[in-house]
Amino acid sequence: MTTKKALSEKVKALFALKVEGIASQLEAPGVAMFCGSNRLMDIDEVSDISHELESLVASLLDSKDPTDISSAEMLALKAFFHNLSQKVLMRGGHVEDVVRYTQTVQFALIEALEKSSGVAFGQSRSVLLYFTGIFNELIMAAFGAYLDEREQTLQAQQAELRETSTPITEIWDGVLTLPIIGTLDSSRTMLVMEALLNRISKDHARAVVMDLTGVKSIDSQVSHHLMQMVRAVQLMGADAIVTGIHPEIARALVSLNIDFNTITTRANMADGLKEAFRRMGVTVGHI
Predict the structure, then answer these.
(1) Contact (CB, 8 A) for 210 and 193
(2) CB 277, CB 284: distance < 8 Å
(3) Which residue in 30, 115, 122, 260 has the most C-beta neighbors within 10 A?
């Protein structure tokens, strides 16, 4: 790893600088990027960010090895940009905003150091390469925050989808309905089974009507899982009634050589509910 001793004289001089006092010169990129029409931050907040950035840069340049990207000082600087990215994203900004800010701050920092030292660091290839490497790491930290945010969003969407894809409803005291809509693959079948068994336990259900009218296709593996679901419902002490089976699904179920004597089927949801009420001794009359 490159150390101070192996660096050029200009980079050595850069590391020896006292960075304090340049925060005001670092504010311009933040004001331009975050205080414009998007109004992601106010000027006071940008000022606080600039002072914190000044302190972190000073700690990095004063560290034992400023080129060590795994140092505590560098990790603190990366955490700063990671948190800044999260703040911008949460306020409706974009990761590109932070990337542009990071790139602009790089040149503003070099210019500020030049003014404070009287040395033309901007003309030094060593200095430019050093800062390019450092700020590339910071841009990666910004994208890391974006990916974290995106992953959390996807997980939330998937959780919401799982919730809406298993609309288990207590239609009557002790009677649950589960209309299954869309493609029923193995992973979704297992999720539906878990949600259904939890509801049976929670509501002390005595009958479950599972309607397959909205399921257009099913493979042999899913057919097996579906039968496992029926048996699991029965093991929970509830009656399982399957309705709305299409011819294609019926053929797939027959191919499994399943004993249908233990499975109650009805043509549609209405007939399934009538059967559930009959078994519970509930009489539904016409008004």
Answers:
(1) no
(2) yes
(3) 30
Q: Is the dihedral of CA 171, 175, 179, 184 positive or negative?
A: positive
Q: Give 99-144 pLDDT, tens digit per residue.
A: 889 989 988 888 888 877 776 766 677 777 888 888 888 888 888 8
Cβ atoms of 287 and 264 within 8 Å: the answer is no
For the whole model, what pTM was predicted? 0.52
* Chain-centroid distance, C-alpha 219: 31
- For residue 266, the cross-strand partners are 243
Residue holding tokens 């600088």?
17
Residues 61 and 121 in one domain: yes
Are residues 122 and 110 in contact, defined by beta-carbon separation less than 8 angstroms?
Answer: yes
Neighbours of 170 (CB within 10 A): 13
Rounded CA gap, 82 and 56, in Å? 14
**CA 98 vs CA 105, 106, 139, 141: distances in Å:** 10, 12, 8, 10
Q: Which two tokens stand for residue 15?
A: 């590391």
Whether residue 173 is found in the same domain as residue 107: no
Could you tell me how many residues make up the chain? 287
Range of the domain at 150: 4-160
Residue whose token pair is 């901007």 = 122
54-63: per-residue pLDDT in tens?
899 888 888 8
